[in-house]
Design goal:
3-stranded antiparallel β-sheet
Length: about 80
């Protein structure tokens, strides 16, 4: 399994910890219960019920390149449409 070259091996754990921290601190304007799981390219962020679950991909490249505030903005934008 090949990860983004900017986030190899143990750095994917650090990316998960960072995403966990950002979600735990909250994203302004987002009330949904956000969860995520690992996929080859990054993390699939999901919300909603099983029947109406929605999701978007947050890539390792985005986690590597964006600041926490930029990630919060991206998450908020992804949820609103």
């Amino acid at each position: 399994m090949a990860l983004d070259s900017r986030v190899p091996g143990k750095e994917s754990k650090q990316a998960a910890e960072r995403l966990s921290r950002i979600l735990a601190e909250g994203v302004p304007g987002v009330r949904e219960d956000l969860r995520y799981y690992y996929v080859k390219e990054g993390f699939q962020v999901i919300w909603g019920t099983r029947q109406g679950e929605e999701q978007f991909l947050l890539s390792f490249a985005q986690l590597h390149d964006l600041t926490d505030e930029e990630l919060r903005h991206l998450i908020r934008s992804s949820l609103s449409g």
